[in-house]
Design a protein that fits this description.
Layout: H1 11-14, E1 23-25, E2 30-33, E3 41-46, E4 52-57, E5 67-73, E6 76-84, E7 90-98, E8 104-110, E9 119-128, E10 131-139, E11 145-152
Antiparallel strand pairs: 1-2, 2-3, 3-4, 5-6, 6-7, 7-8, 9-10, 10-11
Length: 154
């Protein structure tokens, strides 16, 4: 980092609830992570040395909670968010952050029904036959893991 050692953030201070996810960007030699709860910024590291580089504020949204996984794809960081609202309703959201500006937008909300106590987990994006797809795993905390694949349009 270009910051003097006494000005570098203490990982234990800003990642106080562990490292719930990390996403590698091979093309730009970066590693991204955030807090699990109250994520209002991304922490960016050098992928080769794991040296802290900078913070990228997430703009255009309230702090994000329960980020379950992320992946870098075409200049965006896609986030799998297992979000609970104030009334206890759980929304499964796929969001994305522009890695140049930090601007956040909701890509889509996943309308999953019929599962009582389940949790969204990781995600990956891939291209096939000129189309882009996103695959997410969901765990029902008993015996099953569900794999959902979505075609990304636009």
């Amino acid at each position: 980092s270009n910051l003097p050692a006494d000005q570098r953030p203490d990982a234990g201070q800003f990642l106080c609830d562990g490292i719930p996810w990390c996403a590698a960007d091979d093309e730009n030699n970066r590693l991204y992570c955030s807090r699990y709860k109250g994520a209002d910024r991304l922490y960016v590291y050098d992928l080769t040395t794991l040296e802290f580089l900078y913070e990228l504020p997430i703009t255009g949204t309230e702090p994000l909670n329960r980020i379950q996984g992320a992946e870098v794809f075409n200049g965006y960081l896609y986030l799998n968010i297992d979000h609970a609202t104030a009334d206890g309703e759980k929304n499964r959201i796929v969001g994305k952050v522009d890695l140049t500006t930090g601007a956040y937008e909701t890509a889509f909300v996943r309308p999953i029904t019929g599962l009582i106590d389940w949790e969204s987990e990781g995600l990956t994006l891939f291209e096939k036959d000129g189309e882009t797809y996103l695959t997410i795993t969901d765990d029902d905390h008993t015996v099953a893991t569900y794999i959902h694949t979505y075609r990304i349009v636009g």
